[in-house]
């Protein structure tokens, strides 16, 4: 595995020991701070140089028309883009009239550290200005987990080699000029100057800007207050214009005599509330932050994170990089979700504008699994957001001629924004993914109120969708035609196994949960006939299987398509979608990302061990992993089928997606789903954790099948289950299940029932792992960390 | 059948007896004049009112960017739009200072007649100006078939109730303001002010404008000269500006003393030649026209058309409307193609800007069949245009990762302009359609030079395409995956039967023609191995068939899709593509236009009579005819399967597509393919004419199977076959084959060999027609002229 040489490997932080302007935008993503409500990219305090300046508020976006050279019925007319809101991070510095811009002068030292336990981004720099004066700059920044509207910065500057007159300009800046992005069609277009000024204010140490978006009419307010500590010469003034509000502090400094500024920033936004209301809201939040003080915010941040780590930490022995990466991942996933409060979790969190700030199915299928077991309150919040968009989803279903609800493939506010229907509208599986997230949340938390309320609403409307989308054939088999599964190199196919099995789960669960809550079911108009129709469709669901190959078909006919000519595909032609037409990808056996393999992870009880091994061996050489969503799922099935070395390699790929910028687009924001995939690979792969689904289709038991790759000597992870805190501690020889809190828990260890209590941990021996020969990947697509193709092939032949 | 009450039914002309401003744009399309090089819509001489002003030159277009909200590899970046060039038709009239605008004053009489034998559009009007003066206006207009660059107008005005001072302004106008079109996504966006002025000139009676298009850099010149006849008071002046050049003639007239203007207009354009060269070209063409004179142009026009009708006329007894419609159709198809000279034949000819002026597969599959048997020189010209675009088609194939050539789904200059790949790029059948047009042309004309030259080039490159597009499965069956057939309500399917059978023909023919011309084949790099690979693929071509239903599948699995819920589809929801999403149409049994049924027309020898009857009965209730390309093909198979009443109804639909504006878009131009379909329905349907394909895949004999519907007492048609002129005269009791010119001809009459000579016509008896019960159409989609559904159903049950 590769890491950037300026990043060090440490267990509890991400440390960058020098500033590399070539990867500045990437570093801004990995050093981004967020609480799920506010997002601040890791831009340098001085504002410039920057890769992509970014301050985001979850849910603040602008609309834009979606152009079509040839339009069609049901194509969404409006796109949505998360916008860069007022930047409250900027603290510019002048040293004897030279602006501190690290591109000029001489940078003697520069270090940034993101501490996963304190939730603070710290920076120290030593810089000689073009005028020859050297200063030491220290800053600390946080976006508060406990005060949702608040972020804060401590900025300190001190000359080291003689006196200096410094000016520090602490700003709120709106409508920053953004770099123009182009190239990869997946990189979203940025929206220029999205904010219309409504109010600007600057007085004493207080700043405020209020703006409104033009088309979505969202009012966005930012306020700041400051504490200034410096020598007696220190003075300040404040001034404001429509797009900038600024506190300018000047001081004559000598070595040993720093100037220190504490900046408290608060954000608020609303599509409903008045200017005075939003204005007061941010002023109040700032005042509260000032009252708490910097130290108070830091202490609360640490408390919040201590509680999180206590229930969520994953310890990895034997690979320090993976240890660091999984904590980096957990920290960023938490940041994406912590205080979203009935808003979406975007694919990039609030770390960048990639994918336009949209949420996709990866939230429910990759991010929520981790959060369900570690921070379940965030899951309820995300699913409440989905529930809040039910009216839009019902309207979309109606527009498409379907029953129930059709959730959008990509969205910010709940309206479909996907402009390419074969990989958007046709990817109906997102509806079952949401239903599965409901089931997972309810099973793991036991939150019956949610199940009876939002949960049942979501299950019923998605079940209705499936029943209207599919149909029975002359033999009574239930088919779902014309849909696209997870693999985006196949589209608009019949009976995608992943989709069909997830729909089956959705139909069964809706029927069962409705039966458990008859009064609410009646409110929703679900009668016995409807529930029976759901159960019948589920029972007769088509699951295509190629008998002569003895493998399941990703979708009907897939195994008879022509194989992609991998041998003739040069390495620079990946990702394939940038170099080959969809028509060619769709009609061949080539897979962007785990699809049938993902079905085996999500519905493990519907495949025998033999089938899992066969299928994994068949699909592995066809899967190119042009999606960051693939490696972690492959890791899970590689582990389950005994290919532990391969699982470990895939774990590495998922874990280092952003730290190593494997897809060359971390600049646009972090791959939150792939980060969550690090946890999936460890817990689902080496922990073998599954939710066992009973015959009723409702998950009712937790099972584990731990096994470690040679490289790892121990993996310990923690999960929260219905008020219990369970620690699973895996070593090569045995696994220990340890309950630190809560009632006794029954679980399965490699199929054997085990009950653990707080008094008695269970020590279980590890069965021997057997596996067939390791499957090959498409040429040139081996994950890092395995022997290259040649050796591998030779080894396989021996 | 319905006709507009102001149109009369006459055998040799289209006459409109009053002006109806509500259908002005439609009338401009049906009264359009063209010679395949110049197209003038039937706009009123005075320019306004108009529906859509239009003057077009075949091949003159502008490019525009194609927008994609989500772009993809291989998507065309540039669109092309036929532009409205300099309008040479305008002759404005002022009567005592009142502009003659028929929306004002009082229109006492207005008649327009398009004479199919003279090729002249004549108009008489009697109009009382708002000032109270009544004038008689007479005009005649032609676009010359014999002088390709020339059009001419005679315009005469005379007061009828007292003296009048009149001014007549004869103009060349560029960059006319066009009405803004929107709504149906299929209606193309117009291009505003596409012409950049280069030169303007007006002197004595001569006018000239030269412009250039901005992005395509095509230089367009128009020139005019005039003859003026009037009383001694008559005088004139000429003046010009960049976008208008004008001759103004004034005269004081009294009843009995008309003012007469003859206007000769010439057009020229080039992407290569200089301003002086193009300028001289149009001046020369005008001078030649003046020298020929109006009467000379009229006489030559008549001669040209006499020769055409002698070899092409279709006589129909028993239905005067069909008689008129088929001549209207033949006339307009000739106009679209006559002097195109190595340019495309657009879907709307040069009658309007519908489909952006693009050519599609309908040219080869609908228009060329008619022309091959009646005006074969135009077919060679069109195919030479395709040949000229081979480099672009080869480049497109390379871009798509295929061998050979991939011709564009829609284009003006040979570059792909289709922005929706499932119904564009994926419709690969166009390549086989072009190959089939080559075979048809060569068989019917015996043009061996063409076969050896352009023909073989086209066959080889298209065969190479098919070989690379398809693949053999484990059992050795050759499949073509991921393509779209003619039916645009199905897309991206496996083994579309139409596509596969046409590809089979293409592969076989390429192999056979290459074998016949070994030297040229060697030049093209075709060796025995390649030819064998083509023959092998053809021999093992998949042709999906549902054994339990005993019908062929339009594409693999089609017969197992869910049937469209026709009963729940209200009449106003047709065409379906404007009211339902593609995803829903694609996954159901619902057919926009003949597809499998078309395969049975194009490859009649590959289906038994029993199969044809079964298939027709199966697909008929699924076919909604949302495309104007459907009815004529259904007519042919209805006739073949003995459903003569139904065939007759479909003939009517094809024939009256534009005269009755059945698709409500005749305003945008005529449906040239549906017009040609009138001939296909009569000749292929009631004449039962087919080209029999030998085992070698190359058509080698003409066969007929005449049969008449009750309503018709006689159908007579003429075809040119290898220098022979054959007349087929069908009455209810027998068919007479009569050779008026050329060597003896062998043919088949209902399967029996017959030889006809110029001396001895063959009289053949008609066999009895038997048929199963008439198949039903989807509810509400019965063609006009049949009993309504209810009666029909009741009748079928008896």
Topology:
The structure is a homodimer of 798-residue chains.
Chain A: E1 7-9, E2 13-16, H1 24-30, E3 33-34, E4 38-40, E5 55-57, E6 61-65, E7 78-82, E8 91-95, E9 98-99, E10 106-115, E11 120-128, E12 134-143, E13 150-159, E14 164-173, E15 195-203, E16 206-213, E17 219-229, E18 235-241, E19 244-253, E20 259-270, H2 275-312, E21 314-317, H3 320-337, H4 361-374, H5 376-388, H6 390-399, H7 429-445, H8 448-469, E22 471-472, E23 478-479, H9 497-516, H10 518-523, H11 528-539, E24 545-546, E25 551-552, E26 562-563, H12 582-586, E27 588-589, H13 596-602, H14 609-619, H15 631-640, H16 644-656, H17 672-686, E28 690-693, E29 699-704, E30 714-721, E31 724-730, E32 734-741, E33 745-749, E34 752-756, E35 762-765, H18 789-797
Parallel strand pairs in A: 26-27, 29-33
Antiparallel strand pairs in A: 1-2, 2-10, 3-4, 4-5, 6-7, 8-9, 8-14, 10-11, 11-12, 12-13, 13-20, 14-19, 15-16, 16-17, 17-20, 18-19, 21-30, 22-23, 24-25, 28-29, 30-31, 31-32, 32-35, 33-34
Helix pairs in contact in A: 3-16, 3-17, 4-5, 4-7, 4-17, 5-7, 5-8, 7-8, 7-9, 8-9, 9-11, 9-13, 13-15, 15-16, 15-17, 16-17
């Amino acid at each position: 595995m590769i890491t950037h040489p300026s990043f060090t490997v440490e267990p509890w932080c991400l440390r960058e020991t020098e500033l590399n302007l070539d990867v500045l935008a990437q570093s801004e993503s990995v050093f981004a701070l967020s609480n799920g409500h506010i997002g601040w990219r890791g831009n340098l305090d001085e504002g410039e140089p920057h890769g992509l300046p970014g301050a985001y508020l979850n849910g603040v976006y602008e609309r834009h028309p979606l152009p079509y050279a040839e339009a069609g019925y049901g194509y969404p007319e409006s796109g949505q883009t998360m916008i860069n809101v007022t930047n409250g991070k900027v603290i510019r510095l002048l040293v004897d009239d030279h602006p501190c811009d690290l591109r000029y002068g001489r940078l003697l030292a520069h270090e940034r550290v993101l501490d996963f336990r304190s939730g603070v981004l710290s920076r120290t720099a030593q810089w000689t200005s073009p005028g020859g004066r050297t200063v030491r700059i220290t800053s600390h920044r946080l976006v508060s987990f406990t005060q949702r509207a608040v972020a804060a910065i401590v900025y300190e500057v001190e000359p080291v080699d003689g006196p200096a007159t410094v000016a520090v300009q602490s700003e709120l800046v709106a409508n920053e000029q953004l770099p123009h992005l182009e190239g990869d069609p997946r990189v979203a277009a940025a929206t220029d100057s999205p904010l219309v000024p409504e109010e600007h204010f600057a007085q004493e140490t207080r700043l405020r800007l209020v703006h409104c978006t033009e088309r979505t009419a969202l009012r966005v307010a930012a306020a700041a207050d400051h504490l200034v500590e410096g020598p007696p010469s220190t003075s300040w003034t404040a001034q404001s214009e429509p797009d900038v509000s600024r506190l300018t502090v000047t001081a004559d400094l000598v070595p040993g005599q720093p100037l220190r500024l504490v900046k408290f920033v608060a954000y608020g936004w609303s599509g409903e509330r008045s200017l005075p209301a939003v204005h007061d809201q941010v002023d109040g939040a700032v005042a509260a932050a000032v009252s708490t003080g910097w130290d108070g915010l830091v202490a609360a941040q640490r408390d919040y994170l201590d509680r999180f780590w206590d229930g969520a930490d994953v310890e990895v022995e034997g690979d320090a990089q993976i240890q660091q990466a999984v904590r980096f991942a957990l920290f960023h996933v938490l940041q994406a979700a912590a205080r979203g409060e009935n808003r979406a979790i975007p694919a990039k969190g609030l770390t960048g504008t990639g994918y336009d700030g949209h949420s996709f199915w990866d939230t429910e299928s990759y991010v929520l699994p981790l959060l369900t077991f570690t921070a379940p309150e965030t899951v309820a919040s995300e699913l409440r957001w989905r529930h809040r968009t039910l009216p839009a989803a019902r309207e979309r279903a109606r527009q498409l001629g379907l029953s129930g609800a059709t959730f959008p493939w990509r969205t910010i506010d709940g309206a479909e924004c996907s402009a390419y229907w074969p990989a958007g509208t046709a990817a109906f599986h997102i509806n079952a993914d949401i239903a599965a997230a409901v089931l997972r949340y309810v099973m793991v938390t036991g939150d019956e109120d949610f199940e009876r309320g939002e949960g049942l609403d979501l299950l019923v409307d998605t079940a209705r969708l499936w029943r209207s989308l599919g149909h029975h054939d002359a033999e009574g088999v239930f088919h779902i035609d014309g849909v696209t599964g997870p693999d985006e190199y196949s589209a608009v196919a019949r009976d995608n196994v992943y989709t069909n099995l997830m729909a089956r789960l959705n139909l069964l669960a809706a029927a069962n949960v409705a039966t458990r809550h008859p009064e609410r079911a009646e409110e929703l108009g679900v009668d016995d006939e409807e529930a029976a129709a759901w159960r019948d469709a589920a029972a007769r669901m088509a699951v295509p299987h190629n008998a002569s190959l003895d493998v399941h078909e990703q979708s009907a006919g897939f195994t008879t398509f022509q194989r992609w000519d991998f041998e003739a595909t040069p390495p620079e032609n990946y990702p394939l979608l940038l170099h080959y037409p969809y028509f060619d990808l769709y009609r061949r056996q080539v897979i962007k990302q785990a699809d049938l393999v993902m079905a085996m992870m999500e519905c493990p009880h519907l495949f025998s061990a033999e089938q899992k091994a066969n299928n994994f061996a068949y699909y592995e050489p066809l899967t190119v992993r042009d999606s960051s969503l693939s490696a972690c799922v492959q890791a899970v099935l590689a582990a389950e089928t005994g290919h532990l070395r391969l699982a470990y390699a895939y774990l590495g790929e998922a874990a280092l997606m952003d730290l190593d910028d494997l897809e060359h687009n971390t600049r646009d924001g972090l791959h939150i789903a792939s980060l969550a995939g690090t946890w999936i690979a460890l817990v689902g792969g080496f922990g073998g954790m599954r939710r066992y689904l009973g015959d009723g289709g409702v998950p009712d038991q937790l099972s584990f099948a731990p096994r470690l790759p040679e490289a790892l000597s121990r993996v310990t992870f923690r999960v929260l289950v219905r008020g219990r805190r369970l620690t699973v501690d895996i070593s090569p020889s045995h696994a220990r299940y340890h309950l630190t809190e809560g009632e006794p828990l029954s679980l399965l260890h490699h199929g054997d029932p085990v009950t653990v209590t707080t008094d008695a941990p269970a020590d279980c021996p590890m069965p021997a792992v057997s596996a067939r020969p390791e499957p090959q990947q498409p040429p040139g697509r081996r994950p890092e960390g395995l022997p290259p193709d040649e050796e591998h092939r030779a080894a396989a032949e021996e």
